[in-house]
Every structure is written in C-alpha cells, then in structure tokens.
C-alpha cells in the first residue's frame, strides 16, 4: 500500500479457500470504499477430470484503488465490437450502429415520452408501446430528425425508428465488466503453452499474459511502474513488454520472485532459471518450439 501512488491500483488473485479472509484484510488496509471490484476470471473452459464435488472454473481477482484519485480506463474495442458499426447509407459522419429508440419506462411513468413519430416515407404516425416509450423527448427527437440521425431501414419503410449511433462520437472503448471470460483474457492452458514457447522443458501453470494486459489496460497509465511482488514465472513483465510494443507505452516493471526450487526440477531456481530467464528471452528474442524466430 505504501508503494502505491495516489492514483494507483492493486489487483490480487485468490481462490475461494482464502477469498473471504483476503477481502476482510483488504477492506481493513485499503478501506471498504476503495474496493473497486472482485473480478471472476474464468480460468478453465471445462471441469478437470478429478473434480469431486463442485468444479471451480473461476478464480477471483480483487481490485482496490489507493484513493479516489484512481480513474479506471475504457478497454480497447475488440474487432468483433468495431465490426458492428457499418455505413449502409454512406453517411459522411462515418460508420454507425442502429440503437434502440425506446426505453424501459411505461407511458404512465413517463407520459412526456409517449407521443407519435411521423414515418417520413409512409406518412404513418408511429406510437411506442405503452409499456416501453420513446427514449427521448419530442425536442430531442426533432433535433435527431433535423440532423439525419433516424434510421428507418434500408428501404426506409421500417415501422419502428432506430437511432444512428456514430462510432466517431462515442467513447472509443469497452466498459470493463466483472466477468473475465477466458476467450477475452485467456485461461490456464493458454498460459502454460505461452511459457513452454519460451522454456519448452518447463511444466508450470502461470497466469496468461492476456489477463495481465487486460488489468493493465483498466489501470490505463502508459507510463506506469508496475510492481509484482509474487512474480512467479514473470508473466507480468511479459505482459508489460507486449503492451508497450502494442501501444507505444513506456511502462516499467519490478518483479519480486522466490529462489525456491521449481516443482518439476529441484535443480531449477524459480527466480533465476524461470522468471529472469523468461524476461531475458522476451526482451532479446527467442526461437519457439516450431523453430520460428520471435523478435
């Protein structure tokens, strides 16, 4: 805690054996009001064969800010998300996505949002359902019409309007959510394969770099100093270096690792032979199992 900047954040992964105790400890140290989220990371995509009672597919990642000065960032949009924006009418404002023109309120709850909208091509008055009224007032609707923000379909004859939501006008990013699905941030099998690409002789299950990169993106600072004081195989350094290469950041890292022997080989030192060696190979380049040179 003393090493965090005022706008810093800490992420701690834990399973259910000690999860409740850790939450109480973190509340005591950082303050309950600084608890940002307890993420559920989907670390497996299927149950292991030796499951006895209930299979845990997830692990928790507790996130606490040092103070309210911390501001979470939006995540980069995925290609799947950006592909939803099209421009079928060749609008000069660029790609857009059709949005629902209604909201969750009823006509009794929001009588000012229950009014007819003229379909410009058929001349018909379109009313919303009484159980789900328009999402904006008459004044805002008239402004949308004047600015060409209403979409009536390719042929212009749809019976319900939609709002053209332009990519150029929205916050460019994805809201972080508490569920970290393996297809977005990786899983343990992926993490093991990543490490074997660098150190083929090792049987070790670290965190996937995509998970750490995801958390670093939420933290947001491209000039951050990232401390991992249980560095294990050095995944955090690998993730920081990849992210810097990707977005031009100048993040630095400090790793603290144990000098204990690895589980699969007593003559291998976790800090020297795994963590430090992995970082060296990521920095200077290496040859993977397929014989391909990785910069």
Q: Could you describe the 3D structure shown?
A:
It is a single chain. The chain is α+β, with helices and mostly antiparallel strands. The chain is built from eight helices and 15 strands. The protein has helices at residues 19-30, 79-82, 138-146, 182-185, 188-198, 209-219, 235-247, 270-284; strands at 9-14, 35-42, 58-65, 96-100, 117-118, 125-126, 150-151, 162-166, 179-180, 225-228, 252-255, 261-262, 265-269, 286-287, 293-294. A hairpin with a 6-residue loop joins strand 5 and strand 6. It is elongated.
Principal-axes geometry comes out as elongated
Nearest-angstrom radius of gyration? 25 Å
Helicity level? 25-40%
Taking all residues together, what is the mean pLDDT?
92
| Distance N to C terminus | 36 Å
Task: Describe the SSE topology.
Layout lengths: L8 E6 L4 H12 L4 E8 L15 E8 L13 H4 L13 E5 L16 E2 L6 E2 L11 H9 L3 E2 L10 E5 L12 E2 L1 H4 L2 H11 L10 H11 L5 E4 L6 H13 L4 E4 L5 E2 L2 E5 H15 L1 E2 L5 E2 L1
Parallel strand pairs: 2-9, 10-11
Antiparallel strand pairs: 1-3, 2-3, 4-8, 5-6, 7-8, 12-13, 14-15
Helix pairs in contact: 6-7, 7-8
Quick recap:
The chain is 27% helix and 20% strand. The protein has 295 residues and is α+β, with helices and mostly antiparallel strands.
């Amino acid at each position: 805690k003393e090493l965090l900047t005022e706008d810093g954040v800490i992420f701690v992964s834990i399973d259910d054996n000690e999860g409740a105790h850790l939450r109480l400890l973190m509340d005591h140290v950082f303050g309950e009001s600084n608890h940002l989220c307890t993420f559920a990371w989907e670390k497996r995509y299927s149950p292991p064969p030796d499951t006895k009672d209930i299979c845990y597919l997830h692990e928790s990642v507790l996130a606490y800010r040092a103070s309210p000065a911390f501001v979470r960032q939006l995540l980069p949009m995925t290609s799947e998300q950006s592909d939803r924006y099209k421009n079928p009418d060749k609008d000069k404002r660029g790609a857009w996505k059709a949005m629902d023109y209604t909201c969750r309120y009823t006509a009794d709850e929001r009588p000012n949002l229950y009014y007819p909208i003229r379909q410009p091509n058929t001349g018909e008055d379109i009313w919303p359902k009484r159980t789900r009224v328009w999402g904006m007032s008459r004044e805002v609707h008239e402004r949308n019409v004047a600015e060409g923000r209403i979409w009536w379909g390719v042929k212009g004859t749809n019976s319900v309007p939609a709002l053209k939501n332009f990519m150029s006008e929205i916050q460019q990013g994805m809201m972080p959510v508490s569920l970290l699905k393996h297809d977005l941030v990786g899983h343990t099998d992926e993490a093991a394969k990543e490490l074997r690409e660098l150190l083929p002789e090792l049987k070790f299950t670290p965190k996937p770099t995509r998970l750490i990169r995801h958390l670093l993106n939420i933290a947001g600072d491209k000039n951050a100093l990232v401390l991992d004081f249980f560095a294990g195989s050095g995944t955090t350094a690998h993730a920081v270096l990849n992210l810097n290469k990707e977005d031009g950041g100048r993040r630095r890292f400090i790793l603290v690792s144990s000098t204990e022997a690895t589980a699969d080989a007593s003559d291998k030192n976790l800090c020297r032979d795994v963590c430090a060696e992995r970082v060296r190979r990521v920095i200077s380049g290496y040859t993977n199992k397929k014989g391909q040179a990785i910069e």
